[in-house]
Amino acid sequence: MTASAFEKWTSLTGIKVFGHAASISTRRVLLTLHEKNLDFELVHVDLKDGEHKKEPFLSRNPFGKVPAFEDGDLKLFESRAITQYIAHRYEGQGTNLLQPDSKNLAHYAIMAIGMQVEAHQFDPVASKLAWEHVFKLIYGLTTDQAIVAEEEAKLAKVLDVYEARLKEFKYLAGDTFTLTDLHHIPAIQYLLGTPSKKLFTERPRVNEWVAEIIKRPASQKILE
């Protein structure tokens, strides 16, 4: 298929996100689409009913986790893979979410490190705290304060590293907003409404960074 034919096919079939609007991983993809000013359809997946563990969703993601994604005949899963596809595929549209010189491998590697740190150091802890503070209440469960204390201690260590990084740069991957920063936003939005907010506000540079990234129009759109 030629590039022009692909553009025509994509415009006809459109972008679809299969997920839940409250899901941190789904919001990561929605944020990226909003930053790119792309039209899309959010196809609701009922997590309480376990719809993500059944067909037809399992044909989209055999691991049974939201979101799944379609762009024309392309089908993807794993939120960070999806956001990177969107950032590259639509690089010239909306907000550039890559490094200013996206062909500079050294600069891209810095951003890639930031995305790996978010995925393996920040998100596992932040998501556990969001589960304890927010999602357990939705499911009628009780917050385990011992787990909260344990996870807050872990997150504090991660944010200490961020504080040092943000003394050198405005954003985590440099002086421009990139996917590295965007990937943090959904979990941060949840935690700012909980007692764990203090972990962000008591670190001046982290606090400034958080204020900057959550005020973005795309960040506000996923809360609507």
UniProtKB/TrEMBL annotation:
InterPro entries on file: Glutathione-S-Trfase_C-like (IPR010987), Glutathione-S-Trfase_C_sf (IPR036282), Glutathione_S-Trfase (IPR040079), Glutathione_S-Trfase_N (IPR004045), GST_C (IPR004046), GST_Phi_C (IPR034347), Thioredoxin-like_sf (IPR036249)
SUPFAM superfamilies xrefs: GST C-terminal domain-like, Thioredoxin-like
Ranges of residues in domain GST N-terminal: 13-94
Key words, A-Z: Cytoplasm, Detoxification, Transferase
Example of a GO biological process term: toxin catabolic process
PANTHER family documented for this protein: GLUTATHIONE S-TRANSFERASE F2 (PTHR43900:SF48), GLUTATHIONE S-TRANSFERASE RHO (PTHR43900)
Recorded family membership: Belongs to the GST superfamily. Phi family.
Protein name: glutathione transferase
The species this protein was found in: Brassica carinata (Ethiopian mustard)
